[in-house]
Queue: 2 jobs
Job 1
Amino acid sequence: MSLNEEVEMLRNIPMFAKLEPSKLKLLAFTSERITYEADQLFFSQGDMGDAAYLIIEGEADVLVDTPSGELNVATLGRNDFVGEIAILCDVPRTATVRAKSRTVTLRISKDLFFRLVAEFPEMSVEIMRELASRLDHTTNQLRDALAASNG
Amino acid sequence: MAERMDRSMYRFVLKHSGRQQLYILIFVAISWPIGFMLFDVPKQIINRALGGEGPPFSASVLGVYNFVFEGSQTIFLVILCVFFLLLVIINNALKYHINTTKGRTAERLLRRLRYSLFSRVLRFPLPHFKRTSQGEVISMITAESEPIGAFFVGAVVDPVFLAGQLIVAIGFILVQDPILGVAAAALYPVQMYVIPRLQKKVSALGKARLREIRRLSDHVGETVSGIVDIHVNDTSNLELTRFADRLAAIYNIRFEIFRRKYTIKFINNFLDKLAPFLFYLIGGILVIEGNITIGALVAVISAHKDMSTPWKELLNWYQQQADARVKYDQVVSQFDPDGMLDEELQHTEPEGATSLAGDIELTNVSLVDEDEVRRIAGVTLNLVADSNVAVIGGGSSGKDYLALLLARLAVPTGGRITVAGENFVELPESVIGRRIAYAGNTPFLQSATVRDNLVYGLKHRPLTPPEYDEAQARDRDAAAAEATRAGNIAHDYSADWIDYEAAGVDKPEALFERILEIFDTVELSDDIYQLGLRGTIDPTERPDIAEAVLKARAAMADRLREPAYADLVELFDRGTYNTNASVAENLLFGTPVGDAFNINLLPQNPYVLEILRKSGLVDDLITAGRSVAETMIEIFADLPPGHEFFEQYSFISSDELPEFRTLLSRTDRRSHDEMTEEDRVALMSLPFKVVVAQHRLGIVEEELQQKILTARDRFAADLPEELSSAVEFFDAETYNAAAALQDNILFGKLAYGQAEGPSRVGALIAETLDDLHLRGSVMEAGLEFQVGVGGGRLSSVQRQKLSLARALLKRPDLLIANEATSAMDPSVQDRIAETILKVRGGKGVIWIVNRAPMAAKFERVVVFADGRVAEQGAYDELNRDGTALHEMLQSA
């Protein structure tokens, strides 16, 4: 797996989709490639977030602690991007992510991410756009949910 | 009261070298008649052997003996000439002896002066250091005493010797012709009057110059220690200007001195040349009138030449003397502060085993510091023997001054302290320094190993002399005798100074066990273990450790084959390319020793270039280099120059980026042969830094890796003899002396990007070492870690722990900890304090605590406020509403 393939994968993530290839390459080059064996944790619910992960190969479970025990809310695979909320704002991890099998990831640290944003303002515009569209999406969901509960 | 330094340089010289000076003077006196004959004989050769009538011929020796010769004129000439030659030989032998004796005497004096200055620094009253700058003291003991030492060479002898020469020369002329003699010497009184007057001003300027130079060195010292503040406040312009100002002042003074010195020289030279004028004129008239012979006039003129040399030197000596005096006064006056510790207190060995385990009684003790601020105000306190006491209080409560008083780092200005019935103030340092341990919050560590720093508190005097062979023992005796002659201490520095008994062990081997125990007490073991893993050992000195490490390496290799660890480490193997090592490391396949194969400069090494050529790697590497350069330019071009990413991630620095850009366009579409050598090396050096697993650049693929492996073998096979010591190859069967202990155990590279890889491998190493009982060896290597200047290579927490360990190692009767754990986490502080109290087993501990809750562990609590004892008692008794302790606990 070379740098160029990582760049292609990053391009599939909406937040990074419109960035110039050279910026994506910088992001990929300065990020670490980390391999998790099965059952190793990316991070635990409640930790402070310090990085987001792009899954390059393998699968990982997203687990949420509930009063009735651990709940598997999703399984992530190749091309999935996880943990990005924690690098955009200072909130604790809302879930635990655990490797299901041997999983290779690209780890984008918060520190690195912010330094890049600071250096290239056009990145922040793209990210703003992406967040706004997510907000719009969740607002719609909320409205639908409210409409459903009222009706 | 401490003795004063000799205020006058001459008193110092005569007191400490009077006998040698006298000895030299005797030889000088012997040299005078010989000197006279050296003038006289040539004249007799001309007048009596060449110009005389005979036989019989006659020559006079010193005017007291008349030598009569009946033989031929030629033989008479030969006799006189041989006699002259003999005189020359004797004269030079005498001069040689006088000069070496003078040199030895002077060097001893300089050694004595420096020694006594330094020994006085050790006895300065502590507040004096607040006013004295390090830079000034250093410059006084080193640079300023040097010219004084140079002057010592001729302090007494030179003027006598030169004056003697002068008198001989004048005497000679007077005997030849009184009028000429008077004429030759007539101008000296004028010079003797004028020159000291001019010199006085020069001396005053010399004093000013010294003061300025001291300020300059002070400023340099301050800049070095305050460099951080200069950076954060952007005051470099201010500092440069201040420095330039001082340089300007020094320039002006120096130039003024220079000018005046040459004015003196000018006057002197002029007056000196007046004499020949008189000789030629008056002497010439006398010759014409037939009153003296030409021979006599020639002899007189040559005697005057001989006279003007000592006269000039005498003048030089006078100037040097004035200069040295100024320097001596200026230096010595700085080393006589009031309240200096008596020498006796420092050097007296305790009689018998003095113990300070006993009640500590402070009666109405007060301490007023040098700024007239009352820090301790009439404290009366009775601390029962072998109790542990926590002293708490606010920042200005005076609690830290109590610690200083109890360690006798401060002496009370009123009241009385007794410890175990002894008047504390009068106890020699040998008792206090051995029976009391003090650990402060910013401990000073020496720039030496961890071990040296630990046992520092056990080294009070040489105990076991080293084993010398006969020649060494002779040298040692001579060195001791010489030290005594120069008034220095005659101890043997290479002896074993460690007082094992004080540490509670009977032999050196047991000390190590004891140190390990103490490391556990202060929770320093893990730190030292880690330092040990990063440290190196000398396998020739410790073959046992090297052998054990090789066993550990084999055991490690077995463990790493287990599936759970399989991907964590990529082991070194001569036949395989290591994807977690850089291209350079893969090629070298060893640890560089010295600079020849410095990994960063490898592609510039001629031998490496030759190997690359022979292995057909040059083209591949240039192509790879182009590719790396293109990628780097693509990725980093948009970043502003000097961005931190360059240093962290880029293969090309921001300065070089534009150069590589033009290099690429310049060499585009050109064959590699057409490039300049410089361009080729620049491109080739880029892929050397590539670590395949980390950089994912896709440029060092299978085929290139195979070629590098071939080059690796060729590199080792063809390595010329003179370079063989510049690299330690990775070899599974041998210990690599140049690599760290951990690298020797691992014998491979940590795999890049394995989650928790380093910590899992670390745990595995620890497990393996424990299985093989090797932990001790690693700790030993850790003890050899160099802590750096002021302990700078250790963290502040490690420094505090080391300082506590040192205090515990000497098993003092009383341990004083002055906020000694302040840099640590609160929970660690509590734990360490508790362990220390347990380990002390009831022996005295006084702990100035920085957090009130720590006091809970102690039998007794003393609360300080405004330099007074606010309350004291058991913790539980005091911990109730309305007490000062309670208030502090609430606010903590």
Job 2
Amino acid sequence: MDISLKKNKTDLFIVIIATLVVVFFVVINLFYSNSNDNIISVYYNNNVIHTMYLNIDEEYIMEKESFPLLLDKMVIEVKDGRVRIKEEESPKHYCSIMGYQSQKGTSIICAPNSVMVVIEGYEDTGIDWTPGGVANDN
Amino acid sequence: MTTKMMVRYGFLLALSVILSYVEYLVEIPILFPGAKLGLANAVGLIVLYYFGIKYFSMFGILRVLLSAILWTGFGINFFISISGTLLATIMTILVAKYTKASIYGISISGAILHGLGQVIMVAILYQTLYMLTYVVFLIISGIITGYLMALIVASLICRMPKIVN
């Protein structure tokens, strides 16, 4: 099989198609993200344990004593219309590295702690898609 | 496949397993959380170039299986890895066989589909479509890392002697 090592027009075509897909997803996301009253659901071990609002600043603290599947204390912060996992203990700290999120439909999944923070956003589409079980795989 | 080719194929497979383990241990921060360079996939591109589609099709799956046997196990990580690898392998073969794309286009399309396959599996395992919002970041990182890997592979192939006659 002969594979060229030099860039050509087909490569550019592939990048353009990928870019168009990105633009499509961004536009769809913007279309569905138009309010500041989005509900934030905090899931622990497959159950909603707390609800917050993007337009109300709040700090929700989860202690290991009350939530035994946590690796350590976790702090979820809502500030200036954005939410983040401020403090957590996990092997690679992906969920806190993700930083602030504000888009509808975005989720911050912290599998090692069995926690998922979801900015709800598709509740009026009529589609039944319940965010579900977060496994403790570490 | 001659014995010589088989030995070289084995060496490349071992190299890709080691590289995937190194990337698993040493997190290189690339663009977004969870995004990786895909150094092991670069070895796959070398296999595709020298050994062809037939041997490339098995390469990724063998790598994931070996990694699972050696250290990661057959838990959630295995299913996420195998789904990404399968989708990337299929896409790479299709692009290599049916288009005139160079190593750059092949690498980029494979990298994008690798991430997409993983996200689809996460969405299935965690029963949430919210994870699909991550697709945008994965496509962007796929373009960048796919290009970088192709750049490395192209310069390696130009510089090193032919490993298959």
